[in-house]
Specification:
The complex is a heterodimer of chains A (245) and B (295).
Chain A lengths: L15 E10 L2 E11 L4 E6 L5 H9 L4 E8 L2 E2 L5 H6 L2 E4 L11 H6 L11 H7 L1 H5 L11 H13 L5 E5 L7 H16 L3 E5 L3 H4 L5 E6 L2 E7 L3 H12 L2
Parallel strand pairs in A: 3-8, 3-9, 6-7, 7-8
Antiparallel strand pairs in A: 1-2, 1-4, 4-5, 9-10
Chain B lengths: L2 E2 L2 E2 H32 L6 H19 L3 H22 L9 H23 L15 E3 L4 E3 H23 L1 H11 L1 H6 L4 H27 L5 H16 L4 H21 L7 H12 L10
Antiparallel strand pairs in B: 1-2, 3-4
Bound molecules: adenosine-5'-triphosphate and magnesium ion.
């Protein structure tokens, strides 16, 4: 069903290559063989309805789902059996759907929490350039006292310091006001210019179309379709069906 | 000599001092329990036994090697802390996903074993441990006599408590600990070795208990049941302060020690029960404890 030649990157090696990824929560089998690649410098978006398994795919790549099989290769290194901390050390940074801002840490501590795992991370100044609002909230006593948009910026900002070049962003626009969504879109494009590689989960393909190079569509724990951003218009009808919008 | 509320000042300050001494131990022990509970989600019922191990280790160290109080104060917490880390790696780590009850039962069993072993080798009688020469004697403050060793216990306990609070609430290492308490999976996904942090945290909590045990040796003697008696009160302190609150454990520990001491002066009949009465009231009014974070 999937034709690898339809993607133009066959010559280069993928940064992240996921093959036959299966995952379980307890007894429930959620991912049934997920395959996709992310090329260096690309923004790839996973689309799919609620419950399709997008977050589970990200968490499985990150090592946060206990029972998983298949293959997750990052720069030629197999990650499938590694614990989350070693996957992070391999250069993948994760921004979860629920954002994961810590209530017992102030804004500054939240920002500085993820350790640097390789050189080349953004400086604090560079992060504040992307998110000027964050700088004003630095004195804030509790990370969770920030607005939803500010928490999302903090959740993205803190992983930019780590030096990881592959970012997993799970629905960064969920529940946010249009101006904030625009700012996040601007940020993702800026990060792409700085050669970050991004795997994005989105339900909002209008937003995704402003940042993504390619799309994979998920349903029932599998990839059922994929196309490039240039093919988006031709696929809008199908997408409406897939996403039920 | 003068009187306050009809009580001779000597008696009042004497009991206040005893209250502060007891409070020093309540604070150190409930602090260890709070640190362990926050990170491991386990109610460490062997805490009293580990405190007792501290006292015995100091005693044995003196007997077998001649190493006295000051070296013991450093060596013993490290040794007993290491036994704690071994217990965590071999036993506790399998219980984190289960109900609190399992950790409580396991550590309760461990406490019985440790105390049984101590009784088997040393009997139930208290073994004397001398106040270090450098801290014998005392100061006459005019309104009361302050033994040097007791003053040292209060200062040392306060210093250790405040340092622990500072590290947890104000440093980067503390931020890791607090974050891992909240969401260990995500902290691991940032590349931090959470299991190792948990092991070290348990070791540290146990080392605090052993430190208290060494400090207690010259005051209360060393005996197998020294921990069992104290730990019941300390659990009441923890319940009052709120499980897992660092500052709560420290303030409640000292505060209740003082309240207990004052009760001895003004209403001696209630002095053994006052802490439990306060516990019942707090449980009814604020089930999460005075400093508890839970809503
Ligand atoms: N912790 C969990 N335990 C058990 N089942 C889970 C758990 N998390 C998710 N699931 C189930 O796994 C399936 C996939 O969930 P997942 O969160 O990956 O979907 P998603 O595509 O991210 O959806 P959404 O768009 O709503 O975020 C769903 O049926 C969900 O109910
Ligand atoms: Mg999701």
């Amino acid at each position: 069903m999937l034709d690898p030649q339809s993607v133009t990157h066959a010559a280069r090696a993928p940064l992240l290559s996921v093959n036959n990824l299966q995952a379980w929560y307890g007894e429930s089998h959620i991912l049934h063989g997920v395959d996709f690649d992310v090329m260096p410098g690309e923004v790839v978006t996973l689309l799919g309805r609620n419950g399709a398994g997008k977050s589970t795919t990200m968490k499985s790549v990150m090592g946060l789902v206990a029972r998983r099989t298949g293959s997750v290769m990052m720069e030629g290194q197999e990650l499938i059996s590694l614990p989350a901390r070693k996957i992070a050390r391999a250069g993948i940074a994760f921004c979860p759907e629920e954002r994961g801002i810590f209530a017992s840490l102030d804004v500054e501590e939240n920002l500085m929490l993820p350790p640097q795992i390789r050189p080349g991370g953004l400086s604090r100044e560079a992060i504040f350039e992307l998110f000027p609002n964050l700088k004003e909230r630095l004195g804030s006593s509790q990370g969770t006292k920030l607005s939803g948009g500010e928490q999302q910026m903090l959740a993205i900002g803190r992983i930019l310091r780590t030096g990881s070049r592959l970012l997993l962003l799970d629905e960064p626009t969920e529940g946010l006001a249009p101006v904030i969504i625009q700012q996040i879109g601007k940020t993702i494009r800026a990060l792409k210019e700085q050669k970050f590689t991004i795997l994005l989960v989105e339900q909002n393909f209008r937003f995704a179309s402003t940042v993504a190079d390619r799309y994979y569509v998920m349903e029932h724990g599998k990839i059922i379709d994929k196309f490039a951003n240039s093919e988006l218009d031709a696929n809008v009808g199908k997408l409406h069906d897939y996403l039920g919008v | 000599m003068f009187e306050i509320f009809g009580i001779p000042s000597q008696a009042l300050f004497g009991q206040l001092l005893i209250g502060l001494i007891n409070g020093s131990f309540y604070a150190l022990l409930s602090l260890g329990l709070a640190v362990i509970f926050g990170m491991l989600n386990i109610i460490n019922f062997s805490h009293g036994a580990q405190y007792m191990m501290g006292g015995f280790a100091a005693f044995i160290l003196l007997q077998q090697t001649g190493l006295g109080y000051w070296p013991a104060l450093i060596i013993v917490p490290i040794l007993v802390g290491i036994t704690g880390m071994i217990i965590e790696r071999t036993m506790l780590q399998w219980l984190y996903k289960l109900d609190h009850l399992y950790g409580l039962l396991l550590t309760f069993g461990l406490a019985l074993i440790i105390e049984g072993v101590a009784r088997n080798f040393y009997g139930s009688a208290g073994l004397p441990y001398r106040v270090p020469d450098s801290l014998t004697g005392g100061q006459n403050l005019g309104f009361m006599f302050l033994p040097n060793y007791r003053a040292w216990v209060i200062v040392a306990s306060l210093t250790v408590c405040i340092s622990t609070w500072f590290v947890i609430e104000r440093t980067r290492l503390g931020a890791y600990l607090r974050a891992a308490t909240e969401n260990p999976a995500l902290v691991g996904a940032f590349g931090i070795n959470v299991p190792r942090m948990i092991t070290l945290t348990y070791g540290f909590g146990v080392a605090l208990a052993a430190f208290a045990g060494v400090m207690a040796a010259p005051i209360y003697n060393v005996s197998p049941q020294m921990g069992a008696e104290l730990i019941i009160v300390v659990f009441a302190v923890v319940v009052i302060g709120g499980m897992g609150s660092i500052l709560g454990a420290i303030l409640t520990g000292f505060g209740l020690g003082v309240i207990e001491g004052l009760t001895k002066v003004f209403f001696p009949e209630a002095s053994n029960t006052v802490i439990f009465v306060i516990m019942v009231i707090v449980l009814l009014v604020r089930p999460a404890g005075l400093f508890g974070r839970r809503a």
